[in-house]
């Protein structure tokens, strides 16, 4: 789920091979085993966080979107395979959820047992060699995951008597999620691939050999909080480090010459915990890990210009792609990049070993240097044409209408046009539920928190934008991106303020005396963690000149200061209520309503009931403002170009467009925020 705006789209590079000895030429001579001194290059190709983006298409905007899609990554895969004949294509997870196509196949017209998910059909066509499992694989429940992966889970809630269903044609592994019922891993914890390669013998002649590559996968242990409704009492997790320490020696004993960790998480050097979300900094220190394919954070690594904190830790080489000396790649998201690790192998007489000094790591983008995009593989669109057409027909179903445009282009500076209707739906649902089922809480005020899920993190087209007119199902999915469940939490005034303080970390600390331009947005704090209230009853200011934790000023409810002990019920989602985003006090203990109902579905129900949304009623209740302060230099932020009229329509009159192109080469415009107004 994590994202970071304006990730660099690297040009397609065929660099790296120049640093390696040329491949041997001439006839290939088979050997039972390679001799000492033999050498080879094995490329590990990574896709990650595809989120069911099979095609270069935006189902929310109902238009082609060339900046995404596995059908374009397929072209990079073909190019990399031509460069590196010895290769393994591996997927990092978060594969089956994330688009309307995914929801259609999981929720609207669920697959039959003998059918294969569209994303897996495409991956089968590309001959993926192995895959890991991410956190979003669990979003639709264990029964669905069991079915579509072709695994028979021995857990409560899954009928073990049902036949094994169709799944992908490649092995999927996951080592750190266990069945409560059996105490055994849910998936095979690892798999050893016997890969035939062409190598160079010590005499310079080409030979064939086999290298045994063990793949092991890890999911974030935090799935237990994020998908508690599906997982509690059914599965449990173990930490990344201790799981690796358990299984890697076993893999080696079974013949694995190389061990590739496919770990769905990022990097964090906080003190190690078995429950930590991004444990790969510690995974890299486990003996026996030869390479890491990471993900989850929706970032690009290696990336020499990255300012993301996780890539600027001690022992992390963000230019060479090394984490504590281990070659590591993260290939962004949605098929925008392909990770390529060129493992240089040498045979020591007993087995193949990695020469890290000659190994290369890169992430190749589907966008070319001239800003065009590589052409898609046409075979993939043909393969999923039926599912694609059915999804488009489904998402065009109208549910209501709006007289104003709901967008997130200026959500960072106060536009609530795409947020208030979500908050209204959530608050209305929670209030009705409490009245009917929890009379002991019926006297408490009900508030709601929501955030702008799309704020440019994946590119200039990555914004919620629902035009005035009919509101269809695809628009609802644009307004609420994730298949979360509605949760209600009971918080006091101090908790509420702490929640808002955490949200306010979306902004950098602004020095009013600084004459140079200052960036408003802290890109390390994703927009989906920028929760906001949109209620006429609540008012507060965010003072960005103060350090984090001291920014929320003048918090009132119905005109009176909020008391630290005053209690509220707050509607949110299962991710946030259960600890997602590390918000103070939100660890699952404050949850009083864990609804089985999906936030997006209750939003659709709300719009259907309202029929006609208006800005006055559904898009103008802005609870927060920036505290006024005069700054000597400009305070700037980035958004799509030529949409300043949307800010003005939302009543935001202290924003101007400075430059049509901010100069970063990604299509964003540069805007200025006048904090004195």
TrEMBL record:
<keyword id="KW-0732">Signal</keyword>
<dbReference type="InterPro" id="IPR004843">
    <property type="entry name" value="Calcineurin-like_PHP"/>
</dbReference>
<dbReference type="InterPro" id="IPR006146">
    <property type="entry name" value="5'-Nucleotdase_CS"/>
</dbReference>
<dbReference type="Pfam" id="PF02872">
    <property type="entry name" value="5_nucleotid_C"/>
</dbReference>
<dbReference type="InterPro" id="IPR006179">
    <property type="entry name" value="5_nucleotidase/apyrase"/>
</dbReference>
<dbReference type="InterPro" id="IPR029052">
    <property type="entry name" value="Metallo-depent_PP-like"/>
</dbReference>
<feature type="domain" description="Calcineurin-like phosphoesterase">
    <location>
        <begin position="46"/>
        <end position="299"/>
    </location>
</feature>
<dbReference type="Pfam" id="PF00149">
    <property type="entry name" value="Metallophos"/>
</dbReference>
<comment type="similarity">
    <text>Belongs to the 5'-nucleotidase family.</text>
</comment>
<dbReference type="InterPro" id="IPR036907">
    <property type="entry name" value="5'-Nucleotdase_C_sf"/>
</dbReference>
<keyword id="KW-0378">Hydrolase</keyword>
<keyword id="KW-0547">Nucleotide-binding</keyword>
<dbReference type="InterPro" id="IPR008334">
    <property type="entry name" value="5'-Nucleotdase_C"/>
</dbReference>
<protein>
    <submittedName>
        <fullName>Bifunctional 2',3'-cyclic-nucleotide 2'-phosphodiesterase/3'-nucleotidase</fullName>
    </submittedName>
</protein>
<feature type="signal peptide">
    <location>
        <begin position="1"/>
        <end position="23"/>
    </location>
</feature>
<feature type="domain" description="5'-Nucleotidase C-terminal">
    <location>
        <begin position="455"/>
        <end position="586"/>
    </location>
</feature>
């Amino acid at each position: 789920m994590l994202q970071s705006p304006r990730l660099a789209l690297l040009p397609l590079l065929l660099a790296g091979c120049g640093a390696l000895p040329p491949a041997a030429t001439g006839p290939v001579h088979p050997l039972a085993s390679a001799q000492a001194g033999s050498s080879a290059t094995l490329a590990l190709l990574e896709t990650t966080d595809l989120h069911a983006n099979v095609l270069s298409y935006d189902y929310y905007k109902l238009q082609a979107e060339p900046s995404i899609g596995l059908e374009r990554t397929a072209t990079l895969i073909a190019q990399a395979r031509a460069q590196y004949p010895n290769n393994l294509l591996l997927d990092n997870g978060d594969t089956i959820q994330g688009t309307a196509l995914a929801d259609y196949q999981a929720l609207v017209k669920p697959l039959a047992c003998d059918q294969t998910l569209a994303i897996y059909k495409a991956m089968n066509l590309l001959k993926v060699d192995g895959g890991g499992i991410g956190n979003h694989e669990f979003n639709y429940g264990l029964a669905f995951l069991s079915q579509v992966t072709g695994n028979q889970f021995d857990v409560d809630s899954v009928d073990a008597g049902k036949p094994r269903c169709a799944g992908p044609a490649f092995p999927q592994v996951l080592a750190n999620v266990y069945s409560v019922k059996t105490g055994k891993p849910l998936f095979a914890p690892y798999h050893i691939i016997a890969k035939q390669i062409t190598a160079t013998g010590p005499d310079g002649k080409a030979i064939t050999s086999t290298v045994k590559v063990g793949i092991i996968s890890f999911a974030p242990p935090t799935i237990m909080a994020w998908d508690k409704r599906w997982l509690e009492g059914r599965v449990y997790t173990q930490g990344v480090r201790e799981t690796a320490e358990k299984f890697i020696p076993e893999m080696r004993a079974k013949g694995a010459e190389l061990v590739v960790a496919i770990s769905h998480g990022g990097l964090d050097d906080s003190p190690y915990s078995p429950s930590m979300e991004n444990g790969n900094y510690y995974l890299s220190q486990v003996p026996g890990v030869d390479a890491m394919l990471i993900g989850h954070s929706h970032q690009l690594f290696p990336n020499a210009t990255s300012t993301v904190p996780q890539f600027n830790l001690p022992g992390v080489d963000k230019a060479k792609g090394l984490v504590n000396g281990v070659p590591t790649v993260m290939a962004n998201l949605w098929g925008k990049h392909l990770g390529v690790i060129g493992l240089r192998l040498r045979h020591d007489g007993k087995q193949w070993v990695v020469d890290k000094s000659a190994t290369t790591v890169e992430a190749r983008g589907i966008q070319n240097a001239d800003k065009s995009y590589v052409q898609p593989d046409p075979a993939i669109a043909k393969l999923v044409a039926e599912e694609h057409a059915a999804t488009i027909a489904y998402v065009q179903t109208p549910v209501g209408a709006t007289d104003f445009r709901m967008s997130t282009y200026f959500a960072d500076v106060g536009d609530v046009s795409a947020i208030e209707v979500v908050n209204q739906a959530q608050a209305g649902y929670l209030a009705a539920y409490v009245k009917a089922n929890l009379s002991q809480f019926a006297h408490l005020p009900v508030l709601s928190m929501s955030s702008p899920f799309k704020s440019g993190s994946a590119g200039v087209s990555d914004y919620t934008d629902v035009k005035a007119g009919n509101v269809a199902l695809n628009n609802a999915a644009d307004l609420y991106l994730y298949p979360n469940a509605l949760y209600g939490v009971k918080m006091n005034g101090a908790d509420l303020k702490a929640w808002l303080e955490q949200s306010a970390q979306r902004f950098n600390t602004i020095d009013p005396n600084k004459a140079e331009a200052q960036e408003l947005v802290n890109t390390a704090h994703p927009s989906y963690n920028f929760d906001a209230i949109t209620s006429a009853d609540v008012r507060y200011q965010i003072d960005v000149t103060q350090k984090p934790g001291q920014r929320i000023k003048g918090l009132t409810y119905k005109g009176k200061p909020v008391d630290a002990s005053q209690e509220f019920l707050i509607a949110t989602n299962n991710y946030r209520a259960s600890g997602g985003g590390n918000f103070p006090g939100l660890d699952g203990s404050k949850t009083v309503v864990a609804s089985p109902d999906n936030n997006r579905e209750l939003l659709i129900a709300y719009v259907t009931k309202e029929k006609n949304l208006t800005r006055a009623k559904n898009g103008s209740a802005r609870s927060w403002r920036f505290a006024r302060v005069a700054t000597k230099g400009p305070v700037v932020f980035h958004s799509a170009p030529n949409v300043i009229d949307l800010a003005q329509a939302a009543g935001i009159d202290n924003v101007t467009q400075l430059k049509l192109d901010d100069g970063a080469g990604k299509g964003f415009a540069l805007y200025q925020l006048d904090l004195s107004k």
